[in-house]
């Protein structure tokens, strides 16, 4: 077994739609051989095996995917986590379309017609929980600073 390892990138590059579809399959599988990844790609029409293999190679070049070789067969695995990529893309979206304002993003979604009462209640709970934990953290830090003097 030969292992080809790359370190995760700090800020991942953006992916094309086709690359993202292949990456989604790899994230779902955790690791897999090209045939397994090709079968797991959710797209219409289903891409050909060679097309998926080309996308995997491009993803390797971009630093998103690594592989281990087993008797000449490569098993691919994600280097960039779905969470890291999602965070990077969301940060870019907020910066480029919402003037780097999270409140503008939330306002955009809340003011649309697609947000249910249940969604609004859930968001209110999340915000209130975050507010409480932030206040608790500030109180703990203030007390620690007072005690250290």
Instruction: Work out the helicity level.
Output: 55-70%
Shape type:
extended
Strand/helix succession: EHEHHEEHHH
Number of strands: 4
SS-derived structural category: alpha+beta
Number of domains: 2
Instruction: State the separation between the terminal residues, measured CA to CA.
Output: 56 Å
Kindly provide the name of the CATH class of the largest domain. Mainly Alpha
CATH fold descriptor of the largest domain: Arc Repressor Mutant, subunit A
Mean pLDDT: 87
Beta-strand portion reads 5-15%
Describe what this molecule looks like in 3D:
It is built from six helices and four strands. It starts with a strand and ends with a helix. Residues 1-10 have low confidence and may be disordered. It has a four-stranded antiparallel sheet with strand order 1-3-4-2. Strand 3 and strand 4 form a beta hairpin. By secondary structure, the protein is of the alpha+beta class. It folds into two domains: 2-80, Arc Repressor Mutant, subunit A, CATH 1.10.10; 100-147.
Brief summary:
The chain is α+β, with helices and mostly antiparallel strands and 149 residues long. The protein is built from 6 helices and 4 strands; from the N terminus they run E-H-E-H-H-E-E-H-H-H.
Descriptors:
2 domains, disordered N terminus, 4 strands, Arc Repressor Mutant, subunit A, alpha+beta
Fold topology:
Layout: E1 2-4, H1 17-29, E2 32-33, H2 34-40, H3 49-61, E3 65-70, E4 73-78, H4 82-97, H5 102-110, H6 117-147
Antiparallel strand pairs: 1-3, 2-4, 3-4
Helix pairs in contact: 1-2, 1-3, 2-3
């Amino acid at each position: 077994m030969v292992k080809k390892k790359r370190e995760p990138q700090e800020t991942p590059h953006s992916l094309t739609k086709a690359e993202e579809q292949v990456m989604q399959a790899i994230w779902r599988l955790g690791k897999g051989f090209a045939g397994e990844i090709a079968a797991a790609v959710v797209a219409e029409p289903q891409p050909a095996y060679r097309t998926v293999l080309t996308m995997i190679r491009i993803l390797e070049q971009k630093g998103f995917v690594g592989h281990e070789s087993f008797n000449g067969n490569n098993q691919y695995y994600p280097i960039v986590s779905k969470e890291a990529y999602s965070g990077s893309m969301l940060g870019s979206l907020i910066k480029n379309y919402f003037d780097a304002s999270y409140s503008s993003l939330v306002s955009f979604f809340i003011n649309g017609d697609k947000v249910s009462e249940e969604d609004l209640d859930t968001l209110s709970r999340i915000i209130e929980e975050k507010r409480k934990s932030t206040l608790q953290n500030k109180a703990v830090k203030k007390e620690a600073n007072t005690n250290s003097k």
